[in-house]
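Intended use. Records such as the Outer membrane protein beta-barrel domain-containing protein entry shown here are meant for training and evaluating sequence-to-structure methods. They are not intended to support clinical decisions.
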Amino acid sequence: MKKIFVLISLAGSFYASAQLFNIKDRMDNLENFDNQKLSWGFFLNFGQNDYKIVLDPKYGSRGNKNLVSSKPTYSFGAGLMGKMRINDNFDLRLEPGLQFIERELKFDTQSNDQYAANDSFETRVLSKEDMEKRVKATTIDVPLLLEYHIDRWYNSRPYMAAGLNWMVNLQSNEKDEDDNQTASVFRSTTQNFGYSAEIGVQFYFDKFKLTPAFRGTFTINNELVKDNPGTPPYWASAINTAKGRSFMFILKFE
């Protein structure tokens, strides 16, 4: 069985090489595709998401121990892409997509009971629901990217891109009156801005172009909405800033 598997793998590799690179008697696939002024496609992506958090020195840490942590979680998304050719090496891309994101925060802040007398709040015994917050987001993400690519090498072309993002969280609870104490709601902002950096390789086939890529997206503004006045400093008060970040694997089809 191992020999058969090796033979099948080698045969598949030779076939893929012949299709993509076709070195002998080579004829490039989609030779004039990149000469179009405008083109379009779609993409799928799978990501890992968390928050980059800066903790409050009083409520968010105890000595060298951080009392709040952000655990990476996974997400998926899809969207459309439009591309405008600038010249032989630069393109401008707009890639609006819908991202389904969930981030997890853990609060080990029971020790903030010690501040109750001076800061005038009522202590409570934190439940599991109090200590583990899942922040869900259905986000419309609209990145505008400037792409730089080198010349084609047979039927492939490496590239890099960078740009700015405008993001709208359709599940935002920014204006909710309830907070972590009244309804166990961790609030976050509706509109956010960020930046992205991406690298990938474009592969040209007979009928379409496939691009696997890696992208990092980082929020610029603080996404944290503070708890209401009088809420004990177990949750949002323990955090100064929380900025979302995502690392994605993307498959693009044109």
